[in-house]
């Protein structure tokens, strides 16, 4: 790929930065619509059973109340499927759980009523007046107790090549006969995304068959599809707007009960309805990273070559959906291991469905794999970095294909230099400063460099600016900014002349923002749309100018708003004049992944190095230094990309040291209900994170050379910290989070 | 709930009205049967209106508002739902996340943790009132330059808190900034950049 540009690779400020620092960015609960009303959900207080009766009289009589809606009086959406979706369908297709349709309780805090009033205060007060009686059934909310009931996911039964099907190369469970072996169990608890913006939706039936949703979603098209289907409407009758999304980290990859409830409520009161969840409800009904048990068996030769790995995982799902994730993917391709076995199973519990949380299953799996790598290195008395180098894969051992690109060794070197890896002692507990024990650890991450089909629309306007539109959302990475840079460079225009609009389902189709795939997918669509605009301009120039008409395509240059001809200094055409003469010009492109995905294995790679300090009396762990290095292909914007890496690392600190959503199994209800119980990293918990990018283009993913950042920023961070804690203290914590009680 | 900007407050009058209404409230409290009857007879709406609305005078971003609000309305909900100042964000309603940080008489407070009526006569500054017209406040500029945000939702609270942090004299070192900014959670994890932005403003010595 030839170097593109002036903008790509720079740290251009965000195009929406001013809106975000002035409070002018509008999120889904902030649209001022005439006649707006407020909805508050009433949740069940049992985890399983039936609603025996529900008394709404007092709530209905409360001041300002417009409607109290339960399964007894809710209008039925024609596409209602109370039991959720077909487990064989892709997970982002089909709405999860329609609520207010029957008396069945499937999890604690499941919405059983929605109260609508003219003010938020009145709706909240009235919601407290709804009284329910239940016919309770015995519930199951404990993963460990139900592990004997674990089952193979339906999609694995149907398709033995599914990423969650059992995998085998070489001999099964060969580690058991290995010369040097380890066997260990690793557990991560339920973790909750908890974006700072509470899940919120404003639903407005603009006509009996026309629905507009201002919604917190990572995919405007996916949300449109789900609710069009639920209400039996043509997709174009549902408009979804998500210009600004206040963080999501995966929890807006799915349609949730509160969205269904708000749409029903808007139908009943025939006015716009705003519904914002409480922080407590963020635990119960909008997904989480599932509690997962894992076991790794590993064997190696005395000189540090892995001979076999068996990696098993049992994850949690709900009783009404089968949620799966790629917990074991990294183990199959990261290290040379001639004998390799993976087995993935699910346990269905009476809890709301999980959903992918940043780094998703790979981050869970990497905690086990990268901890085990550290344990094996310790057994071998080898430096963990050296152990990884001895088992480095030069091609994909899972598919027996070459990597599209892999610069992980460069990342290892850069990270080791920056953290000061040479200070690390092989023997744990060897470094200290006063009462603080110091340790160093590393963890590796990888994630598929996915690219989906994406469209883009572009118009060159008579004022010389370019308008691009895409349905894609920007949940924080800076998608709008990256797309502006790609367009500016492709067209040879200043970024100020580009307007990229996003987050609206009426714009050009784009994939859901997730899986680190957006720049990979929408980036080339924007690039191709701009190239198509250039073709249009060349044609326009050729019609009125003989020099351009005679010129070869490659001799026409674009810069600073002009077309020029190589070798003909007098030939010059202004974009604006051309467009004015033509009365504007517009293009639409449909950009699809090329065939290289069949020939190469495409992955982003990362390695994280942590320096921790552990207080030997209190067990307090401080992450004093964190270096994250990534091979993510071309970096479009070093500032926003760097920020994303730093943020992913902070998420990893939470995973390693504090995040734990805890259920009281007697009641099947979360006891962590807010951010005082469920701890996430605050300023004082996060060191200044240092970031290094290899910044080498991958020519096989797309013409830009990008591979994706979002997931690898988190994958591998938690084990890096856990390994550093071991190096500091000699204590191996295999169950996250690493709280002080586990160290003293 | 009407908003009448630029009307000077008459606190005495407000207080008298409040006392009258309080008496009504007290009377109702002593005769709960009356309320029940009123509610049953669909009079609830009128009864509610009589005692639910409390007069309140606030100066928000330099603009005086004379309002009538329910005593249970938080300052946060008043700003967002009644004054349409949605720059102040709701992230938890328990004072745990800092997204709702505003300045009340120059002090940073979590606007979700206080009722609007507690701030009668006070001056509130929200993120919308920080810039000088089109000219961004130095802290806003520094957040843009250092990319001190991603999704932008905690940003107004971070910035209001950061301005106060510098004014309080608690931005003396990276460590001190981290400690005094720990009431403002950024789940995107832009902490490194937020601290850099605050340090630059502090070191730049501009008036904040």
TrEMBL record, chain A:
Keyword flag Oxidoreductase: yes
Domain Aldehyde oxidase/xanthine dehydrogenase a/b hammerhead: 22-138
Cited Pfam families: Ald_Xan_dh_C (PF01315), MoCoBD_1 (PF02738), MoCoBD_2 (PF20256)
The entry's keywords: Molybdenum, Oxidoreductase
Source organism superkingdom: Bacteria
This protein's record includes keyword Transport: no
PANTHER family referenced in this protein's UniProt entry, alphabetically: ALDEHYDE OXIDASE 1-RELATED (PTHR11908:SF132), XANTHINE DEHYDROGENASE (PTHR11908)
Protein's recorded name: Xanthine dehydrogenase family protein molybdopterin-binding subunit
Automatic annotation (TrEMBL), chain B:
Pfam families cross-referenced by the UniProt entry: Fer2, Fer2_2
Ranges for domain 2Fe-2S ferredoxin-type: 54-130
Keywords: Iron, Metal-binding, Oxidoreductase
InterPro entries: 2Fe-2S-bd, 2Fe-2S-bd_dom_sf, 2Fe-2S_ferredoxin-like_sf, 2Fe-2S_ferredoxin-type, 2Fe2S_fd_BS, Aldehyde_Oxdr_Iron-Sulfur, Beta-grasp_dom_sf, TAT_signal
SUPFAM superfamilies assigned to the protein according to its UniProt record, in alphabetical order: 2Fe-2S ferredoxin-like, CO dehydrogenase ISP C-domain like
Protein's recorded name: 2Fe-2S iron-sulfur cluster binding domain-containing protein
Lineage, opening ranks: Bacteria, Pseudomonadati, Bacteroidota, Cytophagia, Cytophagales
